[in-house]
Amino acid sequence: MSKRAFLKSILTVSLAAIALSPASLFAQTATKEIRIGYQKNGLLYLAKQTGQIDEAFKAKSIDVKWVEFSFGPPLLEALNLGSIDYGYTSDAPPIFAQAAGANIVYVAAQEAAGAGAAILVKDTSPIQSIADLKGRKLGFAKASSAHNLTIAALEKASLTYQDITPVYLTPADGAAAFAKGAIDAWTI
Fold it and tell me: Is residue 158 part of a domain?
């Protein structure tokens, strides 16, 4: 059984079960390495930091290769292409990926708190509400949770996507563009 076939077969297994009991999960495979895509946030990052996943797989002579991504869409692209076997990302990237035809499977889900997301404007900006974004340049990462937040915020303010000028930027490029004033607002 391949790693991808294995991961598809455990749809009801939680992340904790994958991290804590790989011995039984990999009993019938010849897998020697699992490649895990992660971002520097969330539960998977914490599990990486503690080494629990590595220890559990090491007990079955399976190496863990951690591959860092700056945000969700590139992680899901790597997953779809088979460059990684497992990954953790926010709510919207898998939806955008599947809409684009990606062959991915959900193995666990966690309710998102939403507290780490916002549409930012500078203190000196004339933008005081979502409605004030009309006609403005709004930066965000395409197919990301920031993209989803942008759409939801526009809808809530009775605006359409056509009412703004979307500027697709990676998180790092978005930070730079926001800092130098190249965009009016930044969803992150």
Answer: yes
Give the mean pLDDT per block of 10 residues along the chain (188 residues).
Answer: 48 32 46 91 86 92 94 92 90 88 83 79 96 98 92 96 97 96 97
75/123 same-domain check? no
Kindly write down the DSSP assignment for every residue of the chain, as one continuous string: --HHHHHHHTTT--HHHHHH-HHHHTTT----EEEEEE-SSHHHHHHHHHTHHHHHHHTTT-EEEEEE-SSHHHHHHHHHHTS-SEE---SHHHHHHHHTT-------------TT--EE--TT-S--SGGGGTT-EEEE-TTSHHHHHHHHHHHHTT--GGGSEEEE--HHHHHHHHHHTSSSEEE-
- Is residue 56, in this structure, part of any structural domain at all? yes
Residue numbers of the domain that contains 20: 3-99
* pTM, full prediction: 0.70
